[in-house]
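step: validate -> pass
step: tokenize input -> pass
step: predict -> running
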Amino acid sequence: MNNKIVIAGSRSGVGKTTLALGLMAALKKRGLRVQPFKVGPDYIDPGFHTLICGRNSYNLDSYFLGAAGVRRTFLKNSQQADISIIEGVMGLFDGKGKDSVSSTAEIAKTIKAPVILVIDARKVAQSAAALVYGYKNYDQDLNLKGVIINNVSSAHHFKLLKEAVTAKMSDLKILGYLPKNQDLELPERHLGLVPVSESRELEIYTQKLIGLLEEYIDLDGVIEISESDKVVEVDSTADFKPEFKNEIKKEKIKIAVALDQAFNFYYQENLELLKAAGTEIVEVSPLMDSQLPEVDAVYIGGGFPESFLQELASNKEFKSDLKEKINEGLPIYAECGGLMYLSSRVKDFEGKEYQMLDLIPAEIEMTSKLQEMGYREIEAVSDNLLLNRGDKARGHVFHYSKISKIEGNVKKNYSYRKTEEGYSSLENILASYVHLHFASNPELVKNFLLKALAYKKSGA
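step: predict -> pass
step: emit ->
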């Protein structure tokens, strides 16, 4: 069995994540090997997927990967699973631009997967049928097969909803519902769901969720819908096979990746592209470690450093060791939270300042307002750690902090939408608010690792 199902929402906030997580957990409890995926650029939900399923979750995003890349990522990671559960993004047809690039619907069609639509039943009855009818008929090429209804007031309310939908669409399977007032919200932060490493009560939450799904959802019906005989074909040329792989493998390049409560936002594909090129990933914690191990480059992703400013500032041993090695030429790439860590200081929400590494002479200030969000295509305005001048890559931004002051001579390495980004104070540093997806231009992996190789050979 190698089944697949997309869990879509009529809009954001209808319970799509709750039901996707619940289905993953409930089907895993049945003994199935569940492979999770996430539509779009989000890096928080996949963390929950990974913890619940015990398998890494991957982003399926055509803006980053293209259609062939989406199929490649899906096939490569679903082969050893009994069922793949793909959590959608926003509303079913919401994506980038007027063509809805990387919408849940587009991804479902790309991997030929049937769709289950989640709707919210608060303050509606028969009108729900009109909503579902619109979603089913908006795109005739979409294989919408089932519906799950959230926030249902009573068994009678569900009966009205089910009868209204099936009267108009007898081929749709109504798979059950979740009652309202179940307190199933995962705790949220200003960036969205809290990261896995801070979700101490996730196990209790998951068990409660499993119990509800086993009582109210037709799990056998979900499995039945997922049994698709539509085969996904993949273009083998979509694989990333860098020519320098043998050289990297021979030299045994090691990349330190910051992974702890403060830094944990990474696209899984980024880490695997580094591994595929022959590198060894060494996990480090700027919160807990006293020094950096012997490595040839460092990668610090995003996360919630603003929640651990005191701890990060107080770990002077690690900061001193890392800073010394970077000043000696160790390459380091940092994204969003990583940029904050490399800055001179960060002001928290109350205006209190904390000293960071001072590798990028800039002051970061936390704000209560979202500063920027969305897809970005960047172009290098000069040669840098990852890109050569004129090269392009794609990523995503989502941050509440801002750079309030830049001191000294800080170089900006790439641009987008008339904005300059990519800060460096040394040639071996690149820090930015943009979370780049490495598969959007695998040459940046090659450039990064060649810089790491050069550092290794220098004997620094």
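step: describe -> The radius of gyration is 23 Å.
step: cleanup -> pass
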